[in-house]
Amino acid sequence: MSQKKFYITTPIYYVNDVPHIGHAYTTIASDVVARYKRLEGYEVFFLTGTDEHGQKVQQAATVLGVSPQQHVDNLHQRFKELWARLNISNSDFIRTTEERHKKLVRDILQELHAKDEIYQASYEGWYCTPCERFWTEKDLAEGNCPECQRKVEKIKEHNYFFRMGKYQQWLVDRINNDPHFILPASRRNEVLGFLEKPLEDLCVSRPKSRLPWGIPLPFDEKYVTYVWFDALINYISIHGSLDDVKASGFWPADHNMVGKDILTTHAVYWSTILKAIGLEPPKNIFAHGWWTVNGQKMSKSLQNVVEPNNLIDKFGVDVIRYFLLREVPFGLDGDFSHKALIGRLNSDLANNLGNLLNRTVNMMKKYCDGVIPTPASVGPEDLPLTEKAAEVIAEVRKLYNELSYNKILQKIWTLVDATNQYIDKTGPWNLAKTNEGKERLKTVMYNSAESLRVLGVLLNPYMPDSMSSLMKQLGVQSSIEDQGMASLENWGGLKSGNQTQKAKQLFPRIEDKQVEKLLAELDVPKNEKKESSNQITIDEFMKVELRTGKILEAEKVKKSKKLIQLKVDIGTETRQVLAGIAESYEPENLIGRTVIIVANLKPAKLMGIESQGMVLAASKDGIISLAGFDQECGQGIQVR
Ligand code: MSP
């Protein structure tokens, strides 16, 4: 039987950006899935690369007095070098200036033009030079670019357009029919929201006179290809011609991983381009959140860019890989904090996992001459550990479907804790005292080491170097890749008779007295927050005044599909509150209901009507459910 195939991609990075922790995040997250799927026995193709055309590259090259090609030949190395340092296991690296890529872009343009999917027209629109994108009047945010808030200029020119608009309904249906297509669900709803407006055709050309650094259109050499049209095709140009793509077994991709900022270009532009050339859209587009620094976007001008190479020097690669995926749920934004990173290193890695390995290897030396003993069969006292391992393995496998890295790691740590508890409870140091105990000791030591082997396999995708060192310490000869997830199906994969090895600590603790010096060396501002942005103190929570309120009146807001205007009695007064719930509730069914109101929210105007609070509700797949109580509790009661 041929091996099952799995294809995952990162976005291709703008070659002129200095690689930072945000870029590393997408790449590490993709690498973890690639490594995990290899452990599950898949033939994995994992692609990353650089986006090398466009105005910014052209301008920077001109300033330096080099050709754009020379410039990108130099710049793309920074990404390649960083990925090597971060232990990224990509199968190939695509550059959009490579011949293999340019050829497919031109072939696709030619085919679409021949099929009348691309046509020429005169176009007038607002152009944002930094984003290299046209906007319509209604897209603009107070006259500026809605994406970067910078000035736009009005441009009128002849251009070529891809008939994207005609695929609107197909795309809406595709998204609605496949909940796995765009994840997380909240982002899927954003795309559907975007598709509520008429979808316009996509301008796919730029006049060469304005921008020479791009792929010339095959049917009109006076134009080059719009960078996004060019860049998106990287995901298939790696496999050769369109026929090669179809024959490769690697399309549709299993995951196109993207940041939330580039979801529309992928979900809308990319899916419709694929439709037009007769290929399936990717099976999944996953949009993750952003890393900020003290709540702000990382940028060169703010000088707050977190540079991964410095972090690797100070903390080691695996600590960074672990931290980025453990700290913040994939899909949400997070604030980067060096102190939080040190906290995770000391607690999760040094104290819990590292200490478990140390004590096991030390006791193995002391009580078993450093040789993995032969255990008796699993008894009732061992069951909590072996059952925990089986539960964790099954749960981890499931959680990969949603790419819930932080939940996966939390789950894995329940096995770390269970193993530490198993050792504490069985007490090898007491067992060693009697002859009867010594027999039992063999089983206890074996099970502790086997549990560590299970942890080594599960954590290999996150911390490959550290986990191969862990295996060495346990005396395991075969690589983790060779053991694979299959080696976890039954308890007892660890070979008895292996010679364990004591090595240096996997994750040395950073002591309090070292912290300040380390942070100073990394130029970390003194006021950096300790907690990550998704944690608040109880005092911060108590600032939010939540009260029960009874709905007295409810009516739909005219001209709004979503808003209902409520009059809510919150005990001390009646408030007028607007709630975006009209698609899930009829106003008459709301009267008399007790809801939770944020009572100290600054009033705001929506569609010209003042809202004096907010009603709490949950939203899943477009269905809204109001938060409430299972017993009647009256109005004006504080909710905590
Ligand atoms: N070149 C385009 C992508 C073309 S894909 C066909 C591009 N490049 S980028 O370098 O600007 O961004 C690449 C990825 O890095 C995006 O997924 C983006 O979301 C991610 N990040 C850039 N800064 C980030 C953070 N601060 N935090 C997390 N990820 C962010 O867009």
Beta percentage is: 15-25%
Number of strands: 25
Question: What's the main sheet like?
Answer: 6 strands, parallel
Class from helix and strand fractions? alpha/beta
Indicate the low-confidence ranges by residue numbers: none
The amount of helix comes to 40-55%
Please name the fourth-level CATH homologous superfamily of the domain at 335-488: Isoleucyl-tRNA Synthetase, Domain 1
Calculate the mean pLDDT score and round it.
Answer: 93
Structural summary, described in words:
By secondary structure, this protein is α/β, with parallel strands linked by helices. Among the domains are: 335-488, Isoleucyl-tRNA Synthetase, Domain 1, CATH 1.10.730.10; 544-626, OB fold (Dihydrolipoamide Acetyltransferase, E2P). 41% of the residues lie in helices and 19% in strands. It is built from 21 helices and 25 strands. The strands form seven sheets. The protein has a six-stranded parallel β-sheet, with helices on both faces. Strands 19-18-17-20-23 form a five-stranded antiparallel β-sheet, with no helix packed on it. A hairpin with a 2-residue loop joins strand 14 (291-293) and strand 15 (296-297). Helix 17 runs antiparallel to helix 18. It is globular and about 90 Å long. The model has no long low-confidence stretch (mean pLDDT 93). Bound molecules: 5'-O-[(L-methionyl)-sulphamoyl]adenosine (MSP). Residues 11-14, 17, 22-23, 25-26, 51, 231-232, 234, 258-259, 261-262, 290-291, 298 line the site of 5'-O-[(L-methionyl)-sulphamoyl]adenosine (MSP).
Pick out its properties.
about 40% helix, alpha/beta, 6-stranded parallel beta sheet, about 650 residues, 25 strands, binds 5'-O-[(L-methionyl)-sulphamoyl]adenosine, OB fold (Dihydrolipoamide Acetyltransferase, E2P), Isoleucyl-tRNA Synthetase, Domain 1
